[in-house]
Design brief:
Elements: E1 20-29, E2 34-46, E3 52-59, E4 64-86, E5 89-117, E6 120-125, E7 129-133, E8 136-141, H1 151-161, H2 163-190, H3 195-198
Antiparallel strand pairs: 1-2, 2-4, 3-4, 4-5, 5-6, 5-7, 5-8
Length: 200
């Protein structure tokens, strides 16, 4: 079924996984005299449908499933606004942000319970728990400080040298978005098949 996840499965009312929308991400770092604030909007992520299942453990007595995924590559794009205050110097910029994450490891826990509908039982999953372990990353911002030919490239280098700061902010948002999407997809599928049909 993995190959169908990009566009979704209309006959089961399962939504498509691409692109994954993250909404808004806010970042604020540093003391008052050297402060960085940034807001990234309309973030779209492509690549989550290419996940590879590396390990799967199931406990049907408790309806629990634990699995490890590898996300080989995630590409994202959005719009940013940035404000940097260093003593009396204030620098601002806004434009496009693009980037990629490589080799993200992902631990997923699914817990479900049986629900009775008529004479049949169905499996319904609780909100999933997703935990990401960071791999490689690269980030690029256009039009930094109105396209300044010196500050723009220099700031992009600094951002990539300190990309863990950005990843600390985006990871929880990405984890929740993946968890919400995977939970919705799983429940759409299990709602159409009885427990006996899924696990004969």
């Amino acid at each position: 079924m993995i190959t169908k996840f990009i566009a979704g499965i209309p006959e089961l009312d399962v939504p498509g996984i691409e692109p994954l929308s993250l909404g808004q991400i806010a970042l604020a770092r540093g003391p008052q005299g050297a402060k960085l604030t940034a807001v990234v909007n309309d973030v779209k992520v492509r690549g989550p449908s290419n996940f590879i299942i590396q390990e799967l453990k199931s406990d049907l007595d408790r309806n629990r499933f634990d699995f490890k995924l590898l996300l080989p590559r995630l590409d994202f794009a959005g719009q940013y606004k940035m404000d940097i205050q260093v003593l009396l110097l204030r620098l601002q910029g806004k434009g496009n942000i693009t980037g990629s994450f490589k080799d993200y490891a992902c631990n997923v826990t699914m817990r479900g319970h049986k629900e009775k509908r008529g004479d049949e039982e169905y499996l319904n999953f609780e909100p999933m728990k997703v935990k990401l372990r960071v791999g490689e990353s690269s980030i690029y911002l256009t039009n930094l400080f109105d396209g300044d030919p010196v500050l723009g490239p220099a700031t992009n280098r600094v951002i990539n040298d300190n990309s863990q700061v950005f990843l600390q902010e985006i990871s929880p948002v990405l984890e929740k978005s993946l968890a919400d999407l995977f939970t919705e997809m799983a429940n759409k599928i299990t709602s159409r098949f009885t427990y006996k049909e899924l696990f004969p």
